Amino acid sequence: MMLDLLSTKDTSLVGEIGEVIARKYLWHKGITAYAPGRIMWLSLLAERTDILNLYLEVEKNHDMFEELNEAEQRVLIEYSSVKTLGEERIRYLKDLFDYGPTWCWDYAGYGRHSEEVYLIEVKTSRVGKKYTLKSSWSGRSRRGYQRVDLEKARSLGFKLLLVNVELLDNWKFEVSDREL
After folding, report:
1. Range of 141's domain?
2. Domain holding 19: CATH number?
């Protein structure tokens, strides 16, 4: 099977490719981005007392971290990222996730070198079809979120980020972002 990405009508495939590119782009900008399911898994971690106790032990004795196996180290690193979000933001993300297919954001993330937290929407377009805010994001998203929903997210301290990925010829792409 051969597929021409520049002319395919499979918008979900194009969107998923754009999301992978956007995630790498965000990483290089110092933002760790998680998909909604991963956020929910991490929030469940935050409720486990055994992980909390291990986290607190390592906080007291940093040398202990080196003694943990790789899986335990990874869990603690991800657990610390959940703590960065805070309870109120995690509750907000859980509420969004409970809406199921109406989840409005492609990623939630945090700045690795700052205290900033993000809700991130990725839009992918092909050559000559650059995405603009004049369509679905001008007043409400295609998934039904109103301006009041965006203001609620801002009031919780989330920065709202729109990442545009334009797929160009010959496996090249152009990525830009802006705060909403």
Report:
1. 11-35+86-179
2. 3.40.1350.10
* Confidence at residue 24, expressed as pLDDT on a 0 to 100 scale: 94
Confidence grade of residue 86 (pLDDT, cut at 50, 70, 90): confident
- Give a three-class secondary structure readout of 2-55: CCCCCCCCCHHHHHHHHHHHHHHHHHHCCEEEECHHHHHHHHHHHCCHHHHHHH
Q: How many domains does the chain divide into?
A: 1
Task: Give pLDDT tens digits for 14-45.
Answer: 888 899 999 999 999 999 888 766 666 666 66
The answer to the question of residue 66 being in a domain is: no
- Strands lying side by side in the sheet with 107-111: 31-34, 107-111, 117-126, 158-167, 173-179
Residue 45 domain-assigned (yes or no): no
The per-residue pLDDT for range 146-164, each reduced to its tens digit, is 677 788 889 999 999 999 9
Write the DSSP symbol of residue 114: S
Domain contains 74: no
Indicate whether 159 belongs to any domain.
yes
Mean pLDDT of the chain: 77
